[in-house]
Structures are given as C-alpha cells and as structure tokens.
C-alpha cells in the first residue's frame, strides 16, 4: 500500500457542504446508530460526500463530514486516508481499481497494469478527455475470478489484456459493458461447469 496523501492545495476547492438532499440523507443515516455513536457513520457519510464531489474527496469535504459528526478532523482524515475506496485526488469518469494482490498478480494482473499504463498513464493521472484514471488496490475479494478490476461500482473478472482493453474501449465509446466474469463461467462457479454435486440425490 502506498502512502495516501491529500491532493495539493491548488486542486482543492475552498468549500464543501452537503447538498440539501444529501444533508437530509445524512441526518437520517446517523439515526441508524445508537445514541452517542453517530461518529460510526463516518464511512457512509464520506462516501456520500465523495459521490457528491464527482468521485473524489477534497479536504473541505473531510472537514465538513467530521464537523457534522462532531469529531476531530484528524479522525476523519485517518479514515479517508486508510481506505482506498476514498479517492483523495480527482478521478476520471471511469475510475479503475486494479487488484494487485498475489492471486491476481499470479493470474496476469501485470498485463492489466501494462494496459492501464499504456492507455491511461501513471496511477492517479486522469486522461485528457477526463474519462479514465486508475489505481492499484489490495485484494477486492474476488480472487477466484482473478485477475480482476473494479470500474466505478462494478467488478470485471477473469480478465485478459484483450478483454480488459475491450471494456475500456467500450466505456470510452459510451457502449454498454457486461460486468462480472469475462469468460464463459457463471459467477465464481468452476470454469467448464460444475465438477461436484452433479448426481441427483
Ligand atoms: S487477489 Fe485480486 S481479488 Fe483477491
């Protein structure tokens, strides 16, 4: 895991506050937690702030959320800088989170990384058209379908450099893409179909 820092001052907006709808949502969200434990809502609130701010969390949003929850700014900053689901720098319309943990590495993540570097640039860069950015992340819990990447909210699994490149092409062209395994298998079932429990009881 690399060091995660806030974007430099020149990229930071001066202010952030929840929109009217998000403020109403946040007020309701904290009622899910026991009295006195409202700070436990830090992750969903940071996530909503990130969504409102076009996919990344500026410092002003982290401060806003910590003030809303009545907690020290440093506590909210600790959470925002720990989890890679929080983007601390501007991201593209399609943010690629490429799994770089051992099972995905053993199954071809190096090739996918080359695709990212060639088509998008270095980690954290946004393409000139604003469409793509990428970052390497730790295991996303889909190792059985390695190698894989998450793009915005969806997982794309059993990738090759060809299928991954095609997905990026289609997203860039505004075409529909199919999340999940990119080979002929059902979710995480064995490749080639069932191998056990085939006999009727
Ligand atoms: S190692 Fe890549 S999803 Fe687990």
Written account of the structure:
The chain is an alpha/beta fold. It has two domains: 9-82, Arc Repressor Mutant, subunit A (Orthogonal Bundle); 94-181, 3-Layer(aba) Sandwich (Glutaredoxin). The protein has six helices and five strands. The protein has helices at 20-29, 42-52, 59-69, 73-82, 102-119, 161-172; strands spanning 94-99, 132-137, 149-151, 154-157, 180-181. Strands 2-1-3-4-5 form a five-stranded mixed β-sheet, with helices on one face. Helix 2 runs antiparallel to helix 3 (59-69). The longest helix has 18 residues, at 102-119. It is globular, with a radius of gyration of 19 Å. The model has no long low-confidence stretch (mean pLDDT 95). Bound molecules: FE2/S2 (inorganic) cluster (FES). FE2/S2 (inorganic) cluster is lined by residues 99, 101, 103-104, 139-143, 146, 148.
Defining key terms:
Arc Repressor Mutant, subunit A, Glutaredoxin, 10% strand, 201 residues, five-stranded mixed beta sheet
Spatial strand arrangement across the major sheet: 2-1-3-4-5
> So, the CATH homologous superfamily of the largest domain?
Glutaredoxin
Number of strands: 5
Order of helices and strands: HHHHEHEEEHE
* Overall mean pLDDT: 95
**Cα gyration radius (Å):** 19 Å
CATH class of the largest domain: Alpha Beta
